[in-house]
Amino acid sequence: MRRTxxxxxxxxxxxxxxxxxxKLRTFLSLFGITIGIFCIIGVMATLGSLEHNIQNxxxxxxxxTIYVDKWDYSAGGDGQYPWWxxxxxxxxxxxxxxxxxxxxxxAKYAAFKIDRSADLEYEDNALKDVVLYGxxxxxxxxxxxxxxxGRYLSLAEFQQGTNAAVVGNEVAEQLFLSAERxxxxxxxxxxxxxxxxxxxxxxGNQMLGGWQLDQAVVMPYRFGRTLMDERNAQPLILVQGLDxxxxxxxxxxxxxxxxxxxxxxxxxxxxxxxxxxxxxSKAFEQAFSGINMGGMVIxxxxxxxxxxxxxxxxxxxxxxxxxxxxLKKAIGAKSRIILTEFLLEAAFLCLIGGLIGLALVFGLxxxxxxxxxxxxxxxxxxxxxxxxxxxxxxxxxxxxxxVIASRMNPVVAIRSK
Length: 417
What we know:
Layout: H1 2-21, H2 23-60, E1 65-69, H3 83-88, H4 96-103, E2 107-122, E3 125-135, H5 139-142, E4 147-150, H6 155-160, E5 164-167, H7 169-176, E6 186-189, E7 192-200, E8 216-220, H8 221-224, E9 236-241, H9 247-261, E10 273-276, H10 277-320, H11 322-330, H12 335-372, H13 380-406, H14 410-414
Parallel strand pairs: 3-8, 5-7
Antiparallel strand pairs: 1-9, 1-10, 2-3, 2-6, 2-9, 4-7, 5-8, 6-7
Helix pairs in contact: 1-2, 1-12, 2-10, 2-12, 2-13, 4-9, 10-12, 10-13, 12-13
């Protein structure tokens, strides 16, 4: 063990000496490693952060949740389903909630949603195109709404259809300059007054759209339907399954329930769509997997260039230290010791190049996170990947020079000066 530690420190010392003695040559040789690690880890960090944020947004739509709608979210632009068939379908109705819960044994919660844009007024101030959401009481069980100030809507307010409302953080700050001051204020939307009982915690930008609660007003469905025509308010039913039920089982149960509710005969096709949130997540996982692979290939090309650069350093190092190698072997150093020393030296050189690349990635993530308000982080997995890649590239770059050094005849090597 002690001998191994001595070899490691000796190799590290020699690698640093080579760096210091031939700065320009070393920099040019390690540049490929630096750029390769920068490309690979930079792409993995950026795409990983993007995927993480998107997956979190998908989770915000509700876990183990099916969206019952007239529209098929996955059929958007593929042209395989005529849009006019979607238009002719009946829109979901609030009255169907109770029937869904009665006919779907795997359902835990069901909620109804309508929304419409409108101007929101307070005294002499007005906000244009604020989203008005009308939710039924179980919506917060499917998609929790975090309240920053005040409180959320009570069950009694949902059942009685009162004019209580909670507003998004941006709405509160723009209308009242301070989100905290919004609680208790009375605002007007589409000619009706709303009493603000709470302010929703800031969510930030949503890349997928999602529930834009920062710029929204949330009210009980029974009151919301007095402000908007339900037929033109994008009605939607959300159904969440029991904890031990898969989405496939929930979907099967829900399909049977909806066909019965809509009184469809066995020969009639569905006039509704069950949109599965989990399918969106899987689709994004597959897409990012391919993109990550492309980024790694690009970075791999740079690493191959860097590999030859490090190999060049090691060949030169072996040639310059031939006499030293011969002396070591003459006094008893075994071939495997010489081999190990040069392999570790090559690995250390690659690690140094990799650390420079990681430093550049860290700097870039700070700049991008601040400039675009988009958090980018380097995961522990990415760091392990970077170290592992550097070590493997170093060993591959140094294997031939190390073998040449380990097989040298000590007499010939000493006299080669």
